[in-house]
Fold these 3 entries.
Entry 1:
Amino acid sequence: MRQLTMFSHLIWGTALLCACSGTPKTMSRAELVKFIGNKEHGLSQEQEVNGIKVQVSYRPSALLAAQELGNGQLPPPAVIDSIESKYKKNYYFLLKYSKDGREAIRQLGDFSRYSDMVQVLSFQMPRFVNVTTAAKDTVPLRDYLFDQTYGMSDGNTVLLCFEKAQLQNKKDIEINVAECGFGTGNLKFHFEEKDIKKVPALDYRKL
């Protein structure tokens, strides 16, 4: 009986240790960005072809809401809810192109190619990016935004937006990034819905 009691205590102690060391339910903005960037969580992936590094990272809608709120005084819950509601209906992913730690479009050789790629990233991405699911459904981009940083960043980024209703309960999400001018060929980035659902909520008091 004593051995059974000691075993029970060991089980409860292990469970308590796991609970204490588990992922918190809420995080600050900095903590959430770090969580997303940890490749062990399956939310940030990258491939490199011909010296061009292509990265796709999940972007929780709460981070977009926080960006809109800025770093000022915490607004009332109703304001936060109103801003969040604009983003909650979509999934967001950040597509990033870089070369040697700098913006990829500034490493292509001449101004003509640079100008062409600015046009592609700004206005033509629906031609090159979509999502396919395990059920072979194809989901197009709902919207996107190229962040023109004029050489001041370590990469060129495009925020990709997909309608969440079209991807609910699909389990596997494959983002297809076709060759668009960087010489990388066609790339695929695989995400799982279960990993996305594990993302902690944003603590708006810690922006």
Entry 2:
Amino acid sequence: MRPATLLLCLALAPACVKGNPIELDGDLLTEGGTLRIDGCGYDLTTRYGAEAPRPGTAVFGPDPTPRHVHLGIMGDPKTSVVAQWRTKDDKTLASEIRYAKGASLPAADLVEEKAGIVFAYRSTGAEEIRVHQAHLCGLEPGTSYSYQVGGTDLDGAKSYSPVYTFRTAPDTVAHPDSEVVFGFVGDSRGGYDVWQLLIDELSDRQPDLILFSGDAVTIGLTQYEWEEFFDRAEPLFARVPLVSAHGNHEVNAVNYFSQIALPGDQENFGVDYGFAHITVGNDTPDDISKLAGEFKDKIAADMAKSNSARWKLFMHHQPMFSASTRHGPSQTLQDAWLPLVDQYKIDLVLNGHDHDYEISRPMINKQVQATNDNATVFVVAGGAGAELYDNGSDYWTLYSEKTYNAAVIRVRRDQMTMEAFRHDGTQIPQGFSKSKP
């Protein structure tokens, strides 16, 4: 980390931790706002430290070239997607998406257009960071679309990204034989050469959705690491939506909530994708009492609503069960959230935080089970580039290894499997498989 950045974060510790507005160079950061997204049925809300979102206008800055193109989810992934990007300058306000049904189409065939949305936030050093978003709703399930983002100024000058292709989630009622693939990875902070290798390995495995368990950067308020994170991942993230859990190193910063499009309050929410439901929780809130209060209630409500889902996953950052010698298991989260995992019979819990690979034996109420029929398996895959921690073993440990790693999770109606791999592409010997009639 840059020394000046660290000193600033330490000096502003309450703001770093709580995500409150702070003063930099005497300028009070804005307090966010809400904009209804036409045709999508949801609102876009920005946080303290960011402007209220507003429609783009036909204005170019010095270099309007799009960059950091990545996809997110705020609505039903069968019928919607969010494209997000920045430009090489932060003065460009022109914002638009062009798209059409079909894979790998030429730019000339992108005949549908939709205006984008812009807002800016301030990072450390008071620099202005401008975000562009375009929200597509009413799409067809299980369908490929080609798109590009950018804009046109008042003089008719144009600046657009390359053409990318994404695919919406399948309709499992219409296609009960459908399979989806999740890439699972976390803890890239400070190790972006390894992050690049894992992005390449994930791309080769053709995921439909990326599940990131948190800690993309060292301190959430420092923008330069976010630049690395999105630069390296753009070839994958421009094609595959990202669903992220908040990590402790994101420190509830405006940078995190502004740069990743997520459903609901962006902290505790659920996503249906194929035959799976993924519940996501923030286990490092601005007020620790929320873990057993407000946040537990939100997670419980999502799990109750999705209780009939065929496969149930729960992703948050800090593991309830870890044998790493660095952090280990969280008793606080066991007390607050483990009863929900047992009550709603979650199949897989996905974590990072400890920088190794670990998979547990099947568990119910902290007890190892003979089979995983009605039990939960806990996975730690916190090896996306941050310095590795020593692994260990405890009574729940099925396998652990000190290695950079990621995984792919394949979900069909009758089976869910997980294969983990190292940053060099070699397979880790212990994965996961579970079948249901």
Entry 3:
Amino acid sequence: MESVAPYLLVCLLLLLVFAGVEIAVCLGIVSFLAMYSATQDIGISLSFLNSTAYEALRQYLFAVVPLFILMGQFIAQSGAAADLYWGIDRWLHRIPGRFAYATVLGNVVFAFVTGTSLASATTFTAIAYPQMKEAGYNRHFSLGLVSGSACLGMLIPPSLLMVVWGILTDLSIGHLFIAGVVPGFMLAALMMAYIFAITLIRPDLVGHGSGRRQPELDDAGPHVARGIASARPEPTSLDMTISLTGLLAIMVGALGGIWVGFFTPTEGAGIGALISLVVAIAKGMRWPAIYETVLLAARTAIPLMIIVFAAQLYSRTLAMSGIGLTLQGTITGSGLPEWGIVLFMIVIWLVLGTLIDSISIMLLTVPIFGPVALSLGIDPLVFAIVGILTIEAGLLTPPFGLIVYAVRSVIPTENVSMKAIFAGSTPFCVILLVTIAIILTVPETVTFLTRLI
């Protein structure tokens, strides 16, 4: 019976997750049952639960998550992200399909101050989609582009998935941040290469050859773009200066300090949150809006903190009860070659990505898959980036791709189906898979920068 117990507990965990029970509750129930199964003593099991809660939540590192969320919320709510989009658009104003390029580049920069793909998806649906719609872009292509480029938010630091991955595996969060830089820019370059191909093969998708012209700068001056003024007024030069200066200060000061080891991740997150608050105040945000932004960040962070505590409990349970070793032994002893085991894990991530959110996927799988990858000789940083990319790819696939649903929720009045958005995001999902293949083939794309520091 003892040899069957690990598999029964895994089945119970999956059953609870797919029944709609909150992931933290699922992990808590299964962890307690696993510990009780191993000790046969309810007192020891309760003591283990109490000690894990105390040790997990008192860690200084746990302040990173709410501070990064607060930083991203201030930047998004203050309008700095919209200013960023306008600035990139002005820079690219002579390039065909410039709104598409601006969306990808805007997501690259916004990713440095937000850390979550869902925030990127909702922000750029509100900012970029109206511009592309006015310019005659194909709606399915536009919404698929916003969905796909939002995935950059979880790869380019500071990424909340990287923070959670680091907590689960005891990897350095600073090293994870550095490891995501080159793959993040590589992914953005592949997306822009796809956009370039589309402008040549299907110019109608980007507003050319469809009977409508992309708006051009008015001859009277650079302040009004014909055809898009109704979507959003252009920011003033002062707004642009404040926003771009603040974003650069966060990237160079806060995140740069983490990368070179001058700040801990928690200190860097705190400095970034402070800089974003200064930017928000400089752009006109006052106490009522600041208060609401802090509450919004708290509503996002508190459930995450509970989930991360449950993840700590789950990881410790797998280690202490021996269930983790049993499951890992089953995978490595399956007879599959190394590439087959890696492919198996990737398929599991893709399937789970169609059904549940990214953090839940990590909590369920990383404590088991991480040691398996280590036993295969895969660099932990390479495996982390591959895992994050795969999980994000799953969030673009039907039937429950959460990024696509986030995009659709911002435009409830649009007559566009979920199926159409999924179709538009499919090429970007393929680009994510191509990036994974490149990283597994050339792992130096992940480890190069970490070796220099």
